[in-house]
Amino acid sequence: MQGVGPELARKLAALGIETPRDLAATYPRDYRDWRAPAPIAEIKLRAMERAGAAGEPESSEEIALGRVERVNEFRGRVPVVSADLRDSSGVLKATWFGRRGFAGKLSPGDRVFVHGRAQLKRSRGALGVELNVLHHRILGEDEVYRGAIVPVYRAGKELSSRAIATLIEKNASALEALLPDALPDEIRARHGFGSQLEAWRELHRPASPESAAAARERMVFEEFFGIALAAALKRARRNADGGAQPLFAPPGLLDEFQAQLPFPLTGAQRRVIAELWRDMGRSAPMNRLLQGDVGSGKTLVAAAAIVLAARAGVQSALMAPTEILAAQHARKLAPLLLPFGVRVDALFGSLGAREREATRSRLASGECDLAVGTHALIVDGVEFARLGLAIIDEQHRFGVAQRAALRSKSRAPHTLHMTATPIPRTLAQTKYADLDVSILDELPPGRTPVQTFVLRESRKAEAYAFVRKNVARGRQAYVVVPAIDETESALTSALAELEVLRRDVFPDLRVALLHGRLPAREKDAVMSGFARGEADVLLATTVVEVGVDVPNASVMVVLDAHRYGLAQLHQLRGRVGRGSARSYCVLIAPDDMGDVERLLVLARTEDGFEIAEEDLRLRGEGEFAGTQQAGGGSALLGSLTGDFALYMRAKADADALVSGDPGLLRPEHARLRALLDAQAETRAMLVSS
Ligand code: ADP
Ligand code: MG
């Protein structure tokens, strides 16, 4: 690239811009409209209104154009240059901070354009406007002011927005050559879009805010179209490959299933079971993600899929991330499935060799219909006679390879991924775009909402007093800590807290400890002891996060709550409120942490999807690998949350295109093919399965 030496290259790399392609995909984040400087009298009026409205007068961004009347310089540690600036309507005081020697460049009579923050100030008894200058330009004597709309790029400590603008401008023609412009003419025409080149130019040098918005929409659409297209193609390939055994649900199977349950299925459960069974009836393998908040009853839905599989004569496997959870599934599913003749076996790492061998041989011979287990299911040597259904619980706890390993135990099993960590619909559409999604959006009746509070560290004693009160009523409580030993020194460690709890806080109560480094067998013993009521307080790390049910536990105190993501906290508090008792969750935040807005989201809502969307918004989408471009660090121009409607439009077009031309073989789709090839790496990241 022109004008990029090693020094500049290093600064660009710090912003994630490493290749010309990255630079071509670097867009303004915002604009400043510097076309029409405001009359100074107007700026003053606005400043007065603000000062009147709030107690503390606030500043706001303004631009002005005036003639310098008087220049002052204050030569302190931070030099301050100030100038009175007059236009036909009034005068303001412009100030420059930290610009040593600047006073010499400014003379009375100069015409100057300034941009900065304006605020009402009182000096020598009179009220005036002071403008803290961020940008300025001294105009030539005969120069006509022609302000533009100025693009604002994401700048770094060492690289200003203006430097990026200059670089892009200098290299414009080289960068323009990199634009793929792959959107088929037909789609372009339908949306009234111009060429990508025009849009790209407009985005960097817009004629008006409206045209900038239109150009942005055009660019974002193409970006989204590429993502949606890759997903649609992947889905089409899966459907075309087929290879799965269709498992037909006989009429009346749902009623039969319902008849064996102690309670009526929720409407959402019925709907999702129908979706699953429909998928399983096809020769294209099901690849479905079931999302449902903690306690929404995903296990039953899985059971319904297992029943169908068993009816159709194929085996099922259910893989869970921990032994506790797998054991609980096995315990709950076995009686549920018994009336349907489903023979259930468990496979854990901690089983004795004899037991493990026995289970393996039943799987291989087909005597077992459902294997419930941990990673022990995917090791070599575990073979299924005819695996037709693979279920992965808490799917986000497994890697792509592990999920694939389970599926590879058979040619093309129907696959159900389950998660209680809601994936915002926006991510579900992109990162998980090749999965079909089912949502359990209804909790079984009789659930008690969990009341959530945020308390400062210094009031932790109150939280513990509250625990004590509930224990006195016969309830149990969780105390959750983020670490298990002193290695992460700043954190409250489980072991230190255990001592405090046992010695000082609850010397008369039974306090048990559960953490991830305990051997599986011991973990299980602690957890089931707590479930039987053998401890009043369970001090635990986040291993309690997943699925274990203790209906009598009604209080949870989470220490160092700021260390967790919102979705994780939501999942954690799902451990309480599983019985009929009023339940509470107390989130402890450090005293010196300013902003607890994030944690308060949890106090406000129990809707897991809302929490996930909010989490995504607060953390910024860039953190999600799914929106990160491969190679460079430049994120998408489009925002998956903000531009979701646009995404759905692009997706509709991409789906339609793929259904008409699944191989992208038509000549007018050649550019699309090239685009996908070129960006295969990026897409692989965007569309993970
Ligand atoms: P999760 O979605 O978190 O995995 P589970 O499947 O463990 O939820 O269900 C939570 C609890 O709700 C279980 O005790 C289960 O028996 C119960 N449950 C599930 N479906 C219903 C229903 N339709 N009516 C009443 N209780 C239900
Ligand atoms: Mg579950």
Could you outline the blueprint of secondary structure elements for this entry?
Elements: H1 6-14, H2 20-24, E1 30-33, H3 40-53, E2 60-74, E3 80-87, E4 90-97, E5 111-123, E6 126-139, E7 149-152, H4 161-170, H5 172-176, H6 185-191, H7 196-204, H8 209-241, H9 253-259, H10 267-280, E8 287-292, H11 298-311, E9 315-319, H12 323-337, E10 344-347, H13 353-365, E11 370-373, E12 387-392, H14 400-407, E13 414-419, H15 425-430, E14 436-440, E15 450-456, H16 460-472, E16 476-480, H17 494-505, E17 511-514, H18 520-531, E18 537-540, E19 553-558, H19 566-573, E20 583-589, H20 597-604, H21 608-619, H22 644-660, H23 670-678, H24 680-686
Parallel strand pairs: 4-6, 8-13, 8-14, 9-11, 9-12, 10-11, 12-13, 15-20, 16-18, 16-19, 17-18, 19-20
Antiparallel strand pairs: 1-7, 2-3, 2-5, 3-4, 5-6
The site of magnesium ion has 4 residues, from helix 11.
Short description:
The protein is an alpha/beta fold. 39% of the residues lie in helices and 20% in strands.
Describe the structure.
It is a single chain. This protein is of the alpha/beta class and 689 residues long. Helices cover 39% and strands 20% of the residues. The protein contains 24 helices and 20 strands. Strands 10-11-9-12-13-8-14 form a 7-stranded parallel β-sheet, sandwiched between helices. The model is unreliable at 622-634 and 681-689 (pLDDT under 50). Adenosine-5'-diphosphate (ADP) binds next to helix 11.
List keywords for this structure.
alpha/beta, seven-stranded parallel β-sheet, six-stranded parallel β-sheet, 24 helices, 20 strands, 20% strand, binds magnesium ion
